[in-house]
Amino acid sequence: MQRLLRGAEHLVPEGGLEEKLALARREGRPLRVKLGVDPSSPDLHLGHAVVLRKMRDFQDAGHKVVLIIGDFTATIGDPSGKSKTRPVLSLEQTRRNSESYVAQATKILDPNPDKLELRYNSEWLAPLGFAELIKLASSYTVARMLERDDFTKRYAAGVPISIHEFLYPLAQAYDSVAIRADVELGGTDQLFNLLVGRDVQRAYGQAPQVALTMPLLEGLDGVEKMSKSLGNYIGVAEAPEVMFKKAMLVPDALLYRYFELCTSFPLGEARALIEQDIKEAHRVFARELVRLYHGPEPIQEAEARYDHVAKGGIPDDVPELTLSADATQDGVIWVCKLATLAGLSTSNGDARRLIQNRGLKLDGEVVEDVNLQVRLDAPVVLQRGKDRFVRVRL
User: Fold this and answer.
1) Which pTM was predicted?
2) What GO terms in the biological process aspect are recorded for it (predicted)?
C-alpha cells in the first residue's frame, strides 16, 4: 500500500483504495487500473513517466492496468489547464503518435498481456449514437462543469468556451464505464476529469472508481512544468549520455522530488545522500535514471563522458557537418557564419553576441575575435556552452 501511494497528490475518496483492494481480494481478481492518454506528442519525458511509473507499481502488486489511447478524445482536445480552446488532432495524427507513445511507455510498463491491456477509445466513442450521447450529457450539469477552475476563469474573463469542450470530461468518464475501471490515475490537472468519471459511473450503475493523482513534475529550469516545447525535459528515449548529463542538471532543491517521482530509490537513503553530499546525490540519481531506462551497462560510459566534457574535453561522438566548398572562400569562412551554419546560433548577429559573451569555443579554445576567419584545411570542432559540439569539415 505504501508503494502504491508513494508520491501521490490526491486520493478520492480517502481510504477508497484500501476498500477497492479488499474487494478485489474477496472477489479473487485484480483491480482494473486505468490511465487515459491523448497522444498529442509522440515523445515521452519524465513528466509523463511519473504516472506511468505509478501504473507499473500497480502491475507489480498484481493488478491489471488499462492504458487507453485517447485517439478519439484527442480529436476533441483536452481543455485541462488551457486558457483558450485547444487545437485538435486528426484521428490519423493521434494513431501515428500513439505508435511511438506505446513503444516508449512499455519501457516503463510490463507489456505482458496479463498485466497490460491496451485500448483505443475510438472503439466505443466513435460508434456512440446521438441518443446515447444525450444520456451521457444528462448525467452532469453545466453548473458542475463550470466548477472547473479553468472553465471558471475563462467564463469570468469572457473567453469563449465551446460546447464540445464540455464533452471532453464526459467522454473521458465514459472510458471508465466502457472498461469498468476500479481506479483511474492522472496528473493533478486531471482531478476534475477523474471525479466526473466517478459520477458518470454511478449514472451507469457501476461502482465509482477511486481517483489517484500524481504531481506535475517541474522541469530542469525548476519553475515550469516539464515540457519538450520549453526545452526543460529529460526524454525517456534519450541516449544514456544525454540522460546522465541532464540528470546532473536537476536543481538541488528538486532532487529529492525527482528521486521520489522518477525512481524507486529508497527515500530515506535519498534524503541522507542529499543532506551529506549533494554532488554525489546527483550522480546517484543520474546513474539510477540511466539504469532504469537503459540497464546497467551504459552507466559507466555515460558518467565518464560527462566527466570528460565537464573538465573541458571534447567527446568522441560529436555530430558532424560537411560544408560544400562554395560556402567558404578558398577554404576560409567567417567564424560567425560558421557557427550559424553549424546550428549553434540562429543568425550571424546571434553568433556575434555569443562570442562577445565568451560562449563559443573553437577546438577547445574560447573565440575572442568576432572577425576571426577559420581555415578548414582540417576538421574543426565548435562548442557552444558546456555540451553542444559540432565537428565541421569540408
Assistant:
1) 0.80
2) tyrosyl-tRNA aminoacylation
